[in-house]
Q: What sequence folds into this?
């Protein structure tokens, strides 16, 4: 029996044309349109003069930005910024996420070769060298800082930092901007942190730590986790935030075994990542992000709670729990 519901192709067409919204935003960031408007050049004529652009090209771009809700325009032809655009897409604010926009533009170019990646099972262009990875991550983490900071604050609450747990030694593995350890140390004045990451990335972390006034409580451990020899139980908490999906299953399990050695008795390994349901059957960002790992890494993927539990138990961890921090982000906590 046929369904009485009239089917439409709206969902399919929305997906097909979503690239247009992305490209409009990429171009607006490339030309710094939002900062231009924020600084008072908010009419077509003044923007055209300031940016030295073709009148037709700029006019149609501005119309497109209005069409996707990234600009407002009055009857007098004065453009203004929606609140979220003014907050996140105007330089030089600390909340600026233009770096994330540039990262997504780079992803867009690679995603256009998804068919090739699926056919080969390997990232387009092959695996990146260590030098390429350093450059890639040193830029990426700047955009991630803004989006991850609220989630990192929630993580500090879940871990009961400053209440049940104080005066901790924290190791932030592949710490990036140090956003995760920053949020933990802000909850307890007696705790200290060490950031482990590529040398060029730890320089980025230092700048964010300084912004938060925490420089005297941070140390830096430049290097590559997979190549480093770790020993000596010195840490109460080890954080691995959004790194396992990059490492892949084999390297993640090796990392768990290695990091167990640096945890004090009773210490906790904290894994933050996009975790799909155990059957990989629910719609949502984790499964989509898994495709991104095909595009960008030779072995990366997203892993289920069951997989993390099995790997952590095999590495000798106990009392393994999972808890959602945000709708698409999960924390896995395992104890020595």
A:
């Amino acid at each position: 029996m046929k369904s009485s519901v009239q089917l439409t192709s709206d969902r399919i067409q929305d997906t097909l044309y979503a690239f247009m919204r992305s490209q409009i935003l990429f171009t607006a960031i490339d030309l710094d349109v939002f900062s231009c408007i924020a600084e008072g050049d908010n009419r077509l004529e003044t923007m055209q003069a300031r940016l030295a652009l073709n009148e037709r090209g700029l006019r149609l771009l501005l119309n497109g930005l209005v069409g996707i809700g990234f600009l407002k325009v009055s009857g007098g032809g004065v453009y203004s910024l929606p609140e979220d655009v003014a907050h996140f897409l105007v330089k030089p604010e600390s909340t600026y996420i233009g770096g994330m926009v540039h990262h997504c533009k780079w992803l867009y170019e690679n995603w256009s070769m998804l068919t090739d990646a699926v056919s080969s099972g390997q990232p387009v262009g092959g695996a990146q060298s260590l030098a390429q990875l350093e450059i890639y991550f040193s830029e990426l983490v700047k955009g991630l800082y803004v989006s991850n900071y609220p989630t990192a604050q929630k993580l500090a609450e879940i871990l009961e930092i400053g209440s049940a747990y104080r005066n901790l030694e924290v190791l932030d593995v592949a710490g990036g901007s140090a956003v995760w350890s920053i949020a933990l140390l802000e909850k307890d004045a007696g705790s200290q942190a060490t950031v482990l990451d590529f040398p060029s990335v730890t320089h980025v972390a230092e700048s964010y730590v300084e912004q938060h006034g925490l420089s005297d409580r941070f140390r830096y451990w430049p290097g590559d986790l997979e190549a480093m020899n770790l020993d000596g139980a010195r840490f109460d908490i080890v954080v691995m935030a959004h790194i396992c999906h990059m490492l892949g299953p084999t390297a993640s399990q090796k990392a768990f075994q290695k990091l167990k050695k640096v945890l004090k008795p009773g210490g906790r390994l904290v894994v933050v990542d996009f975790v799909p349901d155990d059957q990989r059957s629910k719609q949502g960002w984790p499964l989509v992000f898994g495709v991104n790992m095909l595009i960008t890494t030779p072995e990366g993927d997203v892993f289920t709670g069951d997989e993390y539990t099995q790997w952590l138990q095999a590495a000798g961890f106990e009392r393994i729990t999972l808890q959602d921090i945000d709708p698409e982000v999960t924390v896995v906590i395992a104890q020595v």
Q: What stands out?
A: The mean pLDDT is 93.
